Amino acid sequence: MIPRFDGSRDMRRAIDRLARRLPEPLEDLASISYNYLWSWTPGGSELFSRIDAHRFSLSGSNPVRFLWNLPERDLLRAATDKDLLERLRKVSRRMDNDMRRPTQRTQASGPVAFFCAEFGVHPSMPVYSGGLGVLAGDLLKEASDQAHDVVGVGLLYRRGYFHQRMDTTGWQHEYWIEADTDQLPAVRVRGADGAPLKVTVPVWDGELVAQVWRVNVGRTPLFLLDAELAENNPLERWVSARLYEGSREIRLAQYALLGIGGVRALDAMGITPGLFHLNEGHPALASLEIASQMSSQLTGNRRDLGDLLEVGRDRFVFTTHTPVSAGNETYDPGEFFSVLGRAVDEMGLSREEVASLSRVDAMSTSEPLGLSRLAIRCSRTTNAVSRRHEEVAREMWRPLFSEVEVADVPITHVTNGVHLPTWMAPNMRALLSEFFGPDWERHAHDPGLWNHVDEIPDVDLWRVRCELRLDLVELVRRQIAVDRLGRGEDIAYAEAAFAAFDPTHLTVGFARRLATYKRLDLLFHDVDRLRRIIDNEQGTQFVVAGKAHPLDEEAKNVARNMFAMKRGLDTPNRLVFLEDYDLRVAPQLVAGCDVWLNLPRPPLEASGTSGMKAALNGGLNLSVLDGWWCEGYNGQNGWAIDGSVLDDPAAQDERDAGAFYDLMENEVKPLFFTRDSNGIPTGWLTRLRASLRSLGPHFCATRMSSDYDERIYGQSH
Ligand SMILES: *Cc1c(COP(=O)(O)O)cnc(C)c1O
Known about the structure:
Elements: H1 8-21, H2 28-33, H3 44-58, H4 63-69, H5 72-78, H6 82-100, E1 112-115, H7 131-145, E2 150-155, E3 163-166, E4 172-175, E5 187-188, E6 198-203, E7 206-217, E8 220-226, H8 234-238, H9 248-268, E9 275-279, H10 286-297, H11 305-312, E10 316-319, E11 330-331, H12 333-346, H13 351-357, E12 369-370, H14 371-378, E13 381-384, H15 387-397, E14 411-413, H16 420-423, H17 426-436, H18 447-450, H19 458-486, H20 491-496, E15 506-511, H21 527-534, E16 540-545, H22 553-566, E17 575-578, H23 586-592, E18 595-598, H24 610-616, E19 620-624, H25 629-632, E20 638-641, H26 649-673, H27 682-695, H28 701-713
Parallel strand pairs: 1-2, 1-9, 2-8, 9-10, 10-13, 13-14, 15-16, 15-18, 16-17, 18-19, 19-20
Antiparallel strand pairs: 3-4, 5-7, 6-7, 7-8, 11-12
Helix pairs in contact: 3-6, 7-28, 9-10, 9-12, 10-11, 19-23, 23-24
The structure holds pyridoxal-5'-phosphate (PLP).
C-alpha cells in the first residue's frame, strides 16, 4: 500500500497532546474535540457547556481552544462530576461506533473530492459566508452519516468572512478577526520527513506556497490550503486571508490555490480521487491541472486541450448554485492571465485554448473569461440545485451548447437539502424520536417515517414550538441590548430591549445574506400596511438579520432604510435587527420563528435552504414560489406568493409586497390567533404537521446525498 500522509497521524498526535493536559477521566474529550461529529451528536455540546458554559461561549464554541485555556482547577473539578463522566462515556461510545462503521464506496477508484470555496461546518471554523458554504458543510456531514467515501477541499481563510457592526443610522461597518490556527480543531498535515507538507502554485510572477490543514468532519476529512507562510511575500500570504476578498485579482489567485493547489495537495497526500465534484465555478482550474497531468502521460503525442479535457471529463461533475452574475464572475483576458498566465504556461497548456474554453462563444477573441463556463465544459454532468433552477440554468447556459433547444441543454438538477441533526433543535429531535423510533435520522428521506407526525399530541407539539420561540425571544433580548449599547444608542432605547419581543407573539423571521435580489425591502414596501400588521393587539413581531457584501452599497442602503422606517413604528421593538448573522445564531433563529419569510425576485433564488431548516423545526414558510419552494409548497404546508416574472421590476415589487401583506392579514394571523379552549391553535398545528410530513423527507440532506449518489456520482462511464 502507498503510505498516505493525509494528516491522520498528525491528528492523533494533536489529540495525544491535548489528552495529556486533561485529568485521566476526561481524556476522551481530546479526541471528541478534534472531530466536529460532537456538534451533531446528541449531548455533544453539553459536555463542554456543562464544564463552563460562559468560557465555552467565549472560546467561540471551539472545544480545543476551550480545553487548552481552561484553568487546571476547573478541569479537576469536572473530573469528579459523575454526571458529566457518564455523559462523556455515552457520547464517546456513540462517536466511536460511528467512526468504526465500514465505508460505502461509490467510486471504485477512490473517494469523491468535493471542492468548494467555502465550508460552513461550525461557527468555530470561520471559513464560510452563507448558504453555499453551509450547504457544503451539510454535505460533508451527511457523507459522514452515510459512511460515504468523500473528502472536502477548500481554503483556510485566516480572517474568514467579515463581522458586521451597524451604526445608529443602520449603516453596516465591517471588521475581521484573525484566527489562532494553533487552537483550531485542525492539524497541519506533515509529510514523510515530518515537515509540513507543501504545494506550490505559480501565481502572478512568483510561486505561491501553501500548507495543508486537516479538519475532521465526522468521518469526512476536510483539507484546507493556507498561504500564510514565510516563503510567501505579504501579497501572496493575503491570498488565503479573507473569503470573497474585494480585489478581483486576489480572488483569481484564490481560485488558483483552490483548484490547482487542491489537486496538488491531494496528490502529495497520496489521495487519488475517483471523482472531482466542483461545487460552484471557483475551483474549476482543477480541471486544467488534471488535463496537464494527463498530457504529460501522453508524451510525444501532444493533443489539444479540448481533447485532454474530454478525456478528463469522466472524472468531473459540476454543481451550479446561482444564476446571479456575481456568482458567475468574468474577467478580461489581461486580468485573468496576469494572475494565472504562468500557471497555464507551466502546466504546458495554451493560453488561447484556456481562454476559448472559458468563453461562452469559444470562437470569440474579445469576450471576457469565466470559470463557470470552464467548469461546465470540463465536467461530465452539470446540475442545478432545484427543479426551477434547472430550467433557469438551461436557458442561461444554452449559448454554451450552440444550436440546441433549451430542452436539450444537458443540465439536470439535484435539489438542495439540509443536514437534519445540525438543523433540527434538540427538543424537536427528541420529540420526533419518541414517535419515529431509534436512529431514524439516517433514513430521514423515507416519507413513511414522517406519517408518524400525526400521532404527536397537540399539546406536545405546541409545547416544543413555545419552547423554541421562548429561546429565540431570550436571545433577541440579550443580543439587541448589547447591539444597541455597542452602537451608542441612548440608554432608554437600549433598555427597551430587555422587554422586547414577547414569547406569545406570532414571530416572523427573515435572515440570510442581504443581497438585493432577496428583497428584504418588500417587507416595508408599504409602511402603513406593515404598521397595521405590527402595531395592534394581535401581537406580531419580526426578526431580521443578514450581512451585505462589503462592496454592495445598494444592499447596505436597504438595511439603512429599514432602520429609518422602524423609528416610525408605535412599537419599534416588534421589529428588530440582529447584528452579525452567522452560524452562531442561525440555529436558534430558524428554529424559533413561527413563520419563515423568503421574498426573492424570481427566478434568481436557485434554491434557498433556510426555509428548509425552519420547516424541520415546525416553522411555516411564507415564500415567493421560486427555488426549492416550487417543489415544496403543496397548498397545505405553508403559504406562497406568485413566482411568475413581470417585465417591470417595480410592478413586480408592488404585486409581491401586496400579496405578502394580504397573506399576513387574511391567513397567517387569523390562523395563529384562533385557539381552542386550551389556548392551542389547532388549525395552525394541522398546517404544521402537513409541513413536517411533506417537507421533512424531501429537503433533508439524506435525500440530497442519495440523489447525488444515484444520479450524479453513480453514473460512471
Ligand atoms: C442556511 C443559511 C443561509 C442560507 O439562507 P437562504 O435563505 O437559503 O439564503 C445563510 N446563512 C446562514 C448562516 C445559514 O445557516
